[in-house]
Amino acid sequence: MENTIDKSVFLLDMDGTIYLGNVLIDGAKEFLDKIISEGKRYIFLTNNASKDKSTYVKKLEALGIRAGKDDVFTSADASISYLSKLGKKRLFLVGNTSLRNQLLDAGFEIVDERNQDIDAVLVSFDTELNYEKLWIACDYLQDGYDYYATHPDFVCPLEGGRIMPDAGSIIELLFACVGRRPIVIGKPEDKMIEALIGAYGFKKDDLIMVGDRLYTDIAMGYKSGIKSVLVLSGETSLEDYKKSDVKADYIFSSVKDMVEKI
After folding, report:
1. Which residues make up the CATH 3.40.50.1000 domain(s) of the chain?
2. pLDDT per residue over 139-186, tens digit each?
3. What is the per-residue pLDDT across 88-119, written as a single tens digit (0 to 9) for each?
4. DSSP character for 182?
5. Which family does it belong to (predicted)?
């Protein structure tokens, strides 16, 4: 494992990496300030599609972090890019109002009823989930329509070690019902990096992923051919890491310990 980090663009997960719930992780601000002072850049790269860029910017600013909309890239952004290229613009959505509005603003059409002509089902982190929505999704999936997910995270970490169900838990429920799994667009798939590079013009060799989840953050680094940093401040423990086949290029207790390595 290397001791210094010579990359110029840090792709940063948020939940579990920069903050937990509404609490900033110790040392996160100093870490971000060091990136800027070294003439480098950070992009907040999150799988959480339930909030738009403005919401993330407001949250980051409230935590004392400098950020603009161009500093945030979500699985919703990646999904919009990917599905637009495929021409999948008429969707049945299992997602909340924020994601719905992001899709509508990007020119998508959202269908809410059964027995309509759609291009695909899109599943995401739905904080407004109800039984009817799940049932309709099952109907469309049984009919064979294309099936995508913004991201596969099972849980969303909160402060105090608590969690809440995320998109991956909804995916598992649908799998138990209809036996189908979606094409995932966000982390850990390289579609996320491809969409990011397309949006910003970065070179892949300049990128490094920093996150707390082996099966999304670190796995994406491996799949995309970019280096990765695992921080143990969120979902993954050192014991989890030792048992896993997914390996990071660097491991730190938190981003606080990365400050002197940039």
Report:
1. 9-47+187-258, 76-184
2. 999 999 999 999 998 988 777 878 899 999 999 999 999 999 999 999
3. 999 999 999 999 999 999 999 999 999 999 99
4. P
5. Belongs to the HAD-like hydrolase superfamily. NagD family.
Residue 202 tokens read as: 């970065």
pLDDT for the residue 147: 98
Q: Is 249 annotated as a binding residue?
A: no
Q: What are phi and psi of 36, to 5 degrees?
A: -65, -45
CATH superfamily to which 9-47+187-258 belongs: HAD superfamily/HAD-like (3.40.50.1000)
CB atoms < 10 A from the CB of 90, how many?
14
Kindly report whether the peptide bond that precedes residue 165 is cis, defined as omega within 30 degrees of 0: no
Over range 34-49, report the average pLDDT.
96
Residue 156, pLDDT score: 84
Active-site entry in 6, 13, 26, 249: 13
Cβ atoms 241, 221 nearer than 8 A? no
- CATH number for 76-184 (one of 3.40.640.10, 3.40.50.1000, 3.30.530.20, 3.90.1170.30): it is 3.40.50.1000
Percent of the chain whose predicted confidence (pLDDT) is above 70: 99
Q: Say which of 15, 77, 119, 126 is annotated catalytic.
A: 15
Active site residue 13: yes
Catalytic-residue membership of 15: yes
Provide the whole-model pTM. 0.91
- Does 143 count as an annotated binding residue? no
- CA pair distance 217, 49, nearest whole angstrom: 15
Is 13 among the annotated ligand-binding positions? yes
